[in-house]
Amino acid sequence: MLHLSLFTEDKRQNLITTREGEVKVGQQAQLPITNCNLADNLTQAKANGARFVILGIGEDIGPRANLGRGGATNAFESAMAQFLNLQSNRFFNGKECLILGQISTQDLQLDTQSTTEQLRDQVAKLDERVITVLTSIFDSGLEPIVIGGGHNNAYGLLMAAKASFKRPIAAVNLDPHSDFRPKEGRHSGNGFSYAAASGALGYYHVLGLHELKNSEATLAQLETFGAQWHSLQQIWIRQELSLETALKQIAKQLNNTQSPVAIELDVDAITNMPSSASTAAGIPLLDALKYVNYIGKHCPSVYLHLAEAAPSCHVAGEAAGHRETGQSLSELIYSYINARINAL
Ligand SMILES: N=CN[C@@H](CCC(=O)O)C(=O)O
C-alpha cells in the first residue's frame, strides 16, 4: 500500500493569496489528480511539462530516535505557504512542478513516552515507505525535491535512487554532522552509514563538517569508507579555501564518479535555522543557496533533500519558525530549480 497524502486543490486555495494582475507560482503549479494512482499522476504531470516533484515527509521520529529534539513535522506546509506565493514570471512559471503532497507518517509518530528503541523501529518502517514512493518518482524520470522530516530519510532516498538508476549514488551533504554514526538502529544520525553499508552510497562528500560535532569513531568510519569533507572551520573560520574553490573541487570529484548525484542539505548547517540541532555558529543562508545552485548546475543531480527544518524550534515561537523555515526552504527550492533548468 502507498502511504501518500496528496496535495489538494483546497490546500492550494488555503495557501495562496491572489492579487489582480499578478500570477503566483501556486496558480501555475500542477497538482495530483486524487482518483489517479501515483504512476499515472507522474506520467500525466510529465506530459504536461513537469520536471520536478515536490514532496514532504513530515516526521520527527528520526531526530528523536537520534536523541535530538522533535518538531520536524510541518516544514512542508511552511515551505509551500511561501513557495506557492512567489511570482510566476519570465524567470520561472511554476508549471514545471508537481506539488505531490506528503508521505503519510501520522501512524508512525510516537508520543514522548516512547523508548529510543521503539522510535528506531518506527524509522525503519518509514524507510520502506520512502523507498517505495521515491522509487516510483525516480522511475518516472522526474526529479524529487523532498522537504523533511529528519535526515534519516536520506537513507530511503539513496536506496530508491540506487534501485531506479541501478547503480550507487554519489552524495554531497552540506551539514555540520556527517550522519555516519554507527548502525545501531535507524535514526537521523546514520542515514549515510546505512546507505553505504547497503551499497546505495558509492561516494560521499560532507561540506561544512564541524570539526567537533563528529566523534572520532565516526570520523574513522568516514575515512574507511573513503568519504571526503571540507570542514566548516577550513572554509568559514580559518579561510584556508573559499567556498567557491571547495564547490569546484566537490563538483569535479562528484563528476569523476560518473554516478547520479544526490544533493543533501541539513538546514542545521545554517545559522539559527529552527531545527533539532540548530546552531548560532552556522553558515549564511546565501551560502547554502550558492551550494545548491552550484552543484545542481554543474553535476547530474537526481534529487534535492532539505532535511531537519523544525518550525517549533524557533526561539521566538512557532509562527516565527514557520516564516523563517518557509522562506528559507522556498529560496532553496528555487535555487535548485533554477540550477537544474540551466544545468551545464
Ligand atoms: N541529522 C542530524 N544529526 C546530528 C544531530 C543530532 C540532533 O538532532 O541533535 C547528529 O547525529 O549529531
UniProtKB/TrEMBL annotation:
It comes from the Bacteria. SUPFAM superfamilies: Arginase/deacetylase (SSF52768). Pfam families: Arginase. GO terms for molecular function: agmatinase activity; metal ion binding. InterPro entries: Ureohydrolase (IPR006035), Ureohydrolase_dom_sf (IPR023696). Keywords: Histidine metabolism, Hydrolase, Manganese, Metal-binding. GO terms for biological process: L-histidine metabolic process; putrescine biosynthetic process from arginine, via agmatine. Belongs to the arginase family. This is Formimidoylglutamase. It comes from Shewanella fidelis.
